Amino acid sequence: MKQVIYTKQAPAPIGPYSQAVKSNGFLFVSGQVAIDVAASGDIQAETRQVMENIGAILQAAGMDYSNIVKASIFVKDLNNFGTINDVYGSFFTSEHGEPYHPARETVEVARLPKDVNVEISVIAC
């Protein structure tokens, strides 16, 4: 059984896909970008907005960041890795206040949709 998840608190899809799909206890969140923030060139603000978009989608599905088990990060410039990593990491803490980090990969790509600098997708359960 599949359930499409949608919230107005995150950007509407810019193509033929859903913000997220929930199936058999798993939530598959499509890659999120920060279109408005990307134009500023502030990678920290852009990454924060992407993570907030993900948080809104998780909330719409009855989940939160602690439910994320896998993340995929796509960046235009791997020189921004440290900044992206710091912002991304700040969204994860366990029930006991200790850091919790899902499995993930980070990949440098030639170009991203809408010429953003970072895109992140996640799987949660």
TrEMBL record:
Domain of life: Bacteria
PANTHER family hit by this protein: 2-IMINOBUTANOATE/2-IMINOPROPANOATE DEAMINASE RIDA (PTHR11803), 2-IMINOBUTANOATE_2-IMINOPROPANOATE DEAMINASE (PTHR11803:SF39)
Family label: Belongs to the RutC family.
Name of protein: RidA family protein
